[in-house]
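tool_call: predict_structure(chain=1)
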Amino acid sequence: MSWSHYCELLSIENDDERSFYEKECVNSNWSVRELKRQLETSLYERLLLSDGQNNKEKVYELSKVGQTLAKPDDILKEPYVFEFLDIKEPKPILEKDLERKLVHHMEEFLLELGKGFMFVGTQQRITLGNIHYYVDMVFYNKILKCYVLIDLKIGTMKPEYAGQMNMYLNYYNAEVNDEYDNKPIGIILCKSKKEVAMEYALGGLSNHIFASTYTYYIPNKEQLISEVEKVLNETEAKD
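tool_result:
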């Protein structure tokens, strides 16, 4: 790491958080610009909040080894931050326009997705019974050795989105996967979601389907820290 890296790291007061970013700089070979963006978008807090099952062990793991990809839900963040698109929040946008902007900013999008992602394509066609369906964006994660299918939604998560993604994953598992590929992962990116509805929509599915939100603004770091502390305190109270 360069002196500029260390200057950025020294500005972090929390020891665990500083250790996490230090490990990620080395493991992911971040430039100073990439480090600054991850600091500004609160990557550490977003990873801790990503699965809703935060605990002290997760904090310890992040601070000691950085982010590890060992199982499908390790790739998730909550929320994803698309500030690089420079979209004004009140301005309406169509799903196809959001997709087009993400493709245009693919370098930044790959950085936001995280480790091991390689871009495959957009609007990947699936034909079933002479009916064509299209997956918004397809990636391959070389660490998890699997395809990652992303559906973009500009509104609130709906249960029927999970059924559609489940169909896509079944097709990829049967028709696209090679023998060395692991089961594909589906991520539904939406503006908002209701946890109770998600529990019933995604529960019991054999495929790996996740729903996460996205925002066009850099998150409020103080609010994210408060949410992390709340979950950690709840976990501690149960011990």
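agent: The chain has ten helices and six strands. Proceeding to next step.
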